Amino acid sequence: MDKLSSLSGVRRISEHHNFRASKSLGQNFLTDPEAVFGIVDGSDIGPDDLVIEIGPGMGVLTQEAARQAGQLIAIELDAKLKPILTKTLAPFENASIHWGDVMKTDIRALIQEAKDKAAESGAPGTGSDLSGSVRIIGNLPYYITTPIIMKLLEDRLPIASITIMMQKEVADRIVAEPGGRTYGAISVAVQYYCNVHRILEVPRESFYPMPQVDSTVLRLDLWETPGAQPDSEADFFTVVKAAFSQRRKTLSNSLGALGLPKDRTAALLAEADIDPSRRAETLSLAEFAALSNAYTRCKAENR
Predict the structure, then answer these.
(1) Which of 101, 145, 156, 278 is deepest in the core (most CB within 10 A)?
(2) What is the average pLDDT value for the chain, to the nearest integer?
(3) Closest CA to 167 of 217, 239, 105
(4) Using CA atoms, how far apart are residues 130 and 71, in angstroms rounded to an integer?
(5) pLDDT number for residue 5
(6) How far is it, in rounded angstroms, from Cα 170 to Cα 193?
(7) Are 41 and 48 in contact (CB under 8 A)?
(8) Are 10 and 61 spatial neighbours (Cβ–Cβ below 8 Å)?
(9) Cα separation of 97 and 99, whole Å?
(10) CA-CA distance, 226 to 258, in Å (whole number)?
């Protein structure tokens, strides 16, 4: 019988269950076993870890991750996949499915519930006690990749890493360094929360149906403390958003989005020791922190 992690396997199970991939849900199923192994290896899953998978689809990645994890909880939106996932995950007693929208799911509660159950029944050192890390994995729909990533990070979940496959263009923006054309607000935001590692490139031919773009797998290792140390996190992101609101303009112009008079904007840049003719794409996290600290002090002085 064809393996599930193959084009013939995915086609076979789709035909058997009369299942068609949903374009509106961005469903593209992984059919490359090497990519599956690469994602699981790159995610650094251990036998004592709790894994949360976003969008298991037919369970291709889920099966291999469950083999490595202490316990796995898959979050799936499409109820039409129930008969398929029920069958493909049947051999894995440590895998369960939470049916719902990840954007509306209380992941913190899922983690706590799994930890509590493991503490009650798990035998230490067996993997079932979940004494390791909590790791998130997934093959994210392209249309909602950024909102999902930012939800996971902004919710301050008790997780060690997020290993996700996404559109290559989005991954390039996330890993971009200051000075590059792809460096933007998403680069700053993710790097503020995480140490970013590029794990694997996955060509479009590795999916069914085949998308129009290639994919990249990134692992985001969450910092114990943020990658920058602003006085106010809220002000930090307000400044970043304003700075990139008109990215082709100089900071002296784009920071007008903060609603300050031009002389106050100039004073902020001078206080942060940043040339007003520079553009947002040239600033490091530390420089954004210095600029946001100046903004925080400015607001305090004008109360």
Answers:
(1) 145
(2) 91
(3) 217
(4) 7
(5) 63
(6) 17
(7) no
(8) no
(9) 6
(10) 23
pLDDT band for 303, please (50, 70, 90 cuts).
Answer: low
State the DSSP string of 227-290: SS--S-HHHHHHHHHHHTTTTTS-HHHHGGGG---HHHHHHHHHHTT--TTS-GGG--HHHHHH
Q: Which tokens hold the place of 217?
A: 């797998």
Q: What's the rounded Cα separation, in Å, for the pair 295 and 297?
A: 5
Q: Say which DSSP state 142 is in.
A: G
Tokens 């949903």, located at residue? 22
Q: What is the pTM of this model?
A: 0.91
Question: pLDDT per residue over 185-239, tens digit each?
Answer: 999 999 999 999 999 999 999 988 888 999 999 999 999 988 899 999 999 999 9
Please say whether the beta carbons of 160 and 219 come within 8 A.
Answer: no
Are 220 and 152 contacting, i.e. CB atoms less than 8 angstroms apart?
A: no
